[in-house]
Amino acid sequence: MQSFPRENLWTLAEIINDGDAYVTLNEIREYSLGKRISRQESTLFGLALCARYRVCAVNEKKENERPITAAYRAYLNAMHLTALSLVNHVI
What we know:
By secondary structure, the protein is an all-alpha fold. About 75% of the residues lie in helices and about 0% in strands.
C-alpha cells in the first residue's frame, strides 16, 4: 500500500481550515457514487482526516464562548459527521 503524500495532507488541512471541507467531501461523494476512484486508500485517508480533524476542539465547550468559536465547532462537528457517513459509500 502506498502512503498518502504529505503535500496532500497539508493541502487537505488547509482546505479544512479555510472552511471548505464540504467541497472535498462533496467531491469524494460524487466520485464514490460514480465509481470513478482508482485509489481507495487515499480516499479513505481523506475521509479519516475529515472525520477526526481537531476532534478535541469539538468537545471543548466553554461557558462564555464567542459566537465565532461556536460556529467553528459546529462546522467541525458537521464535517466529522459527514465524513463518517460517507465511509459506507466508498468501501
